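Item description
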Amino acid sequence: MNQALTLSEGPDGLLILTIDNPRASMNVLDMALLPEFAAVLDLLADQSPAGLLICSGKPDSFIAGADIKMLDACADAAAGSELASQGQQLFARLAALPFPTMALIHGPCLGGGLELALACDRRICSDDDKTRLGLPEVKLGLLPGSGGTQRLPARIGLPAALDLMLSGRTLKPRQAKRLGLVEAVVPVASLHRVAADLLRQPAPKPRWLARQSLRWPWRPLLLKLASRQAQRQSQGHYPAIPAILQAVTLGLTQGAEVGQQEEARQFGQLLMSGPSRALRGLFHASQQAKQVQYQQASPLPVSAIGVLGGGLMGGGIGLVSVQQAGLDVRFKELSHEGLAQAMAYGKQRILAQARQGRLSPPQVRRLLARYSGSLDYRGFANRQLVVEAVFEDLTLKQQMVAEIEALGTPLIFASNTSSLPIAQLAAQAAHPERIIGLHYFSPVEKMPLVEVIPHAGTDPQVVATVLALALAQGKTPVVVKDSVGFYVNRILTPYLNEALRLLAEGQAVAHIDQCLRQFGFPVGPLALLDEVGFAVGAKVAQVLTEAFGDRMQPPDLVPRLQAAGRQGRKSGAGFYRYDGRGGKRRVDDRLPARLDLPKAAPMDGQTLVRRCLFPLYNEAALCLAEGVIGSAQEGDLAAVMGIGFPPFLGGPFAAMGQLGGETLLTQMAALAAQAGERFSPNVALRAWLEGQPEE
């Protein structure tokens, strides 16, 4: 009854192995499944079917990968290596079966799931949008540990295999077919019929270019280029990247057996590494956030939403609502030009995906048909929810609330405010219980986080509905307390302010940003300010300064740049210049003179990074103590997903824990003595550190 594997007879002498793990809603490879799979292979060794089809008994997943809890349970590197070796041996036995095998893939086929499929002779997949194929282990600080580093290059060639393994990205069905990873993409209902037909035909060989890429002289050149690019992007913080390259290289130069031995050894070492522990912690936090359920109420059904404001934020919210959530979206703007811009934002990105082969013409037509817009509220009465994405002005947002309520329809009003307390928006509302904050991050279609902010009077069913909407949009929601700046902008502001102070002291823009990028942030703080835009940044800083005083007060550099006509990237100039095709970021040699800045010797990177991080740590601890976030784990997840805090460190609280309380307090005291009292650990930070278990 509790078995995960079922072997049955199919048509034309075929056997069908169905995987349906009873211990999980999606198929995962766990410890209980390994001996069961070995027993099935023992049984198959004595049979001579026409072929074996391997499929899933789950409605929407093939195999989503290994059970992360199984990995967490490994006591040491040796245990991790042994686990990888077990997987390698099982899949080697599958690959050695004396009859043809085919994986029938529908839904996620990731990590160990794809490694199992690669051990089959052949693979086909469904054309369903749920179907994804990839080896994303690098996102957990690991490498494919069950033969994937050896089998994937042999199947699709070195460039494509390295791209997938080093980036962790996944493939849609037709992308997988173009690479030769699967030989057919068919409707899910046709998988078994097509598989039976194909097994009567010869198996296709790996494509010529794929085979050539594994040979001299291309092989060493491709490995060198991949290593250089990956290390440049990762800044050397992710040991899984050189481990993948080493396993692939040994397999190509000394044989697959040696490559798999290195793969297993590296898997165990990586499993115990700090980056992998941090990344797995973030994975658990993300899964937990996605499973948040408000027991007080069930979400209301939402099929259509309105969006007030069609700028970059409104356009992005509309796009994820249409493409990810499958909702009808109606924009309201003040002018035809604004409305056209709102509609164009999503249309341009959908058409770009179509040009890349990621969307078919019928899919494009269906998506674009979900857009509509007007200069008034016609059509809004049949929406279930409205998202407000107008400028950060309390009076304007309260006016939006009043206009929506005047429609006489019980609409949920979700504000995309980045700093204003939701209770203030609801203060004059006739139905404050329908008002909630829903803070997205730019660009909306790329940033995974959304802060969900109920005020004290928000109806629990409204909270549940907005959480369900965020999940449908592909977002990871974190519920935060209604307060000025919420969590992400509150910890981001002192970090950005310190970068501005460093600039005012004579540190170069490029040096400041380079130091923070080398530490692990995806962009430097000054480049980030350019991306956000000075008008938005200045307004958030003003609101936070009014609420929290001097610790949120930035230097006056941004207003001076605004007075000179600079507004950040969108205006073509901010701390950088954005010239030429594509608006490429360039250092502006005229900036120091324009701002009358002193010129100082470059500060050592360690000190510069600490100056930006320590105020962030202090503010994060205050947010936890005040209940703005519910846990340090949520604070870590929001910081990584919202501001790009280095994932390999696990977030600010995880980073402080890794450093150790005594070391951190010593470093903060030393910096405070050197550069100012704002770097001293506050009471909340000291209290949190005292409550942490000793290593």
Notes: The chain has 30 helices and 18 strands. The two ends are 43 Å apart (CA to CA).
